[in-house]
Design a protein that fits this description.
20 strands; 359 residues; alpha+beta; three-stranded antiparallel β-sheet; 2 domains; single chain; 8 helices
C-alpha cells in the first residue's frame, strides 16, 4: 500500500486579504509576469490545526513566550523577546500532527517534522487568480464618535499637550485632527486558488525514539509508554505508536479539518467564504495535477486560461455545487465534500500502523 495520501482543494476567493501584516502577500509569476496573491503553507497549516483542535474541542498545545530583561541607557529597563518554547509533547494532537521544535542552550534539541506536507494556497493558473488590478485606499475610521475616541498630541520632546493647547494649535494652523488613519495603496485577492496536502501515513501517529535525532526528550518516552503508547518500528527505525482509541478519534477530525479549514479571523483582514469548488484525492501526486488544472485557451489572441476538472486523470474528484458558477460543465452535488471526507477517513483507517514492516 502506498504510504502517502495526496489531496488538492480548489477554492474560490472573492475580494479578500489572506494576511494582516503589510497587506496581501504576493509573488510574480515568471512566465506571465503577473502578481500572484498567496497564503503561505504555514498559514494554511495553522488554519488546519485550528480546525482540528476545534473539531475535537481541545485546546492547542501551550506555547511559552520568553522575554529577557536588560538594562538600557540611564538604567532603563528594556524587554527583549526570545525564542518561544514548544512543549514538544505528542499527546497534544496539534503537536503530534503539526510537528514541533525546541532548541535551547544546554538542553536537548528536539525536532519532529510534521507528517503533513502543505503547500501555499495560490492561484490555480497565473491567469485565473491573484491580485485585483484596482488598488484601494483603506481607513481606520472612528470619526462617528469623536468625543469617545480621544486624540493625543505630543510635542517634539514627547510631552503631551493639554486640550486647551491643542485647541489653540488647531485654531492657529487652521486644520483639524480627525479620529481616522489613512492606509493607502492596498490590494485584495480574487479568483480560483488551490492548495495541496501530502499525508505521510508512516509517521502520522508514530513518534521516533531515535536518540541521534531525537523527537522526544528521554523523560517523555517512559511517560508516553505509561499512557498506552506502544513500541513498534517503521522504515525510519524504532518509534512509539499512539493508542488506537486516540487514532480512531483523531482520524475523522483530521479528514474534516483538511477539507473544511478556514483562514481564521485573527489571520485574515477581510472575511471570505473561500468556498470549496472541488477536491481531488489520490495516492499519486501527478494525478492531482491533471485532475484539477488550468489550461490556456487557443481561441483568443490575448493569453487566457480556463479551469478544468478532469475525471480521467486518475484521481477521485468531488465537485461541490458552487463549482458550476466558475467552471463550464461542472455539475456538483450537495454531498460531494462529505463523500470526499469519508474517502479520506477510509484511506487513513486502512493503513496498518502497527505492522508497517513486511516480514
Amino acid at each position: 500500500m502506498n504510504p502517502y495520501i495526496y489531496l488538492r482543494g480548489l477554492r474560490h476567493a472573492e475580494h479578500t486579504v489572506f494576511a494582516v501584516q503589510d497587506g496581501q502577500k504576493y509573488y510574480t509569476d515568471a512566465q506571465f509576469g503577473v502578481r500572484q496573491a498567496y497564503s503561505s503553507g504555514q498559514q494554511v497549516k495553522r488554519s488546519i490545526m485550528d480546525a482540528l483542535t476545534t473539531g475535537l474541542n481541545v485546546p492547542p498545545a501551550p506555547i511559552t513566550f520568553n522575554w529577557q530583561i536588560k538594562k538600557g541607557k540611564n538604567a532603563e529597563v528594556q524587554f527583549e523577546q526570545k525564542e518561544p518554547w514548544s512543549p514538544c509533547d505528542p499527546t497534544h494532537v496539534d503537536q503530534l500532527l503539526g510537528g514541533y521544535m525546541r532548541a535551547e542552550t544546554g538542553e536537548f534539541t528536539i525536532k519532529r517534522r510534521s507528517p503533513l506536507s502543505i503547500s501555499a494556497m495560490r492561484p490555480l493558473h497565473p491567469l485565473l487568480g491573484g491580485l485585483e488590478r484596482e488598488r484601494e485606499n483603506l481607513t481606520f475610521d472612528r470619526t462617528s464618535h469623536p468625543t469617545h475616541h480621544p486624540v493625543r498630541v505630543r510635542d517634539e520632546k514627547g510631552n503631551e499637550l493639554t486640550q486647551e493647547d491643542v485647541d489653540t494649535l488647531l485654531l492657529n494652523t487652521k486644520r483639524n485632527l480627525p479620529n481616522r488613519i489613512w492606509i493607502p495603496d492596498h490590494s485584495r485577492a480574487s479568483g480560483l486558488f488551490v492548495y495541496d496536502v501530502c499525508v505521510d501515513l508512516r509517521t502520522l501517529f508514530c513518534v521516533s525514539t531515535n536518540t541521534l535525532e531525537p523527537e522526544l526528550h528521554p523523560s517523555k518516552v517512559q511517560e508516553l509508554k505509561d499512557k498506552g503508547w506502544t513500541e513498534t518500528r517503521n522504515v525510519f527505525g524504532p518509534c512509539l505508536l499512539a493508542p488506537k482509541e486516540h487514532r480512531d478519534k483523531y482520524i475523522p477530525a483530521l479528514a474534516h479539518a483538511l477539507i473544511n479549514w478556514r483562514i481564521t479571523s485573527n489571520q485574515a483582514r477581510t472575511f471570505s467564504l473561500m468556498e470549496t469548488l472541488a477536491l481531488a484525492i489520490s495516492d499519486n501526486a501527478n494525478h492531482l495535477a491533471g485532475a484539477i488544472r488550468g489550461q490556456l485557451r487557443e481561441d483568443t489572441e490575448k493569453p487566457t486560461a480556463k479551469p478544468l476538472l478532469d475525471e480521467t486523470a486518475g484521481a477521485s474528484i468531488y465537485v461541490a455545487l458552487p463549482a458550476g458558477g466558475y467552471i463550464a460543465g461542472a455539475y456538483g452535488a450537495a454531498d460531494a465534500l462529505d463523500r470526499a471526507e469519508q474517502q479520506l477517513i477510509a484511506r487513513l483507517q486502512a493503513f496498518d500502523y502497527e505492522n508497517q514492516l513486511a516480514g
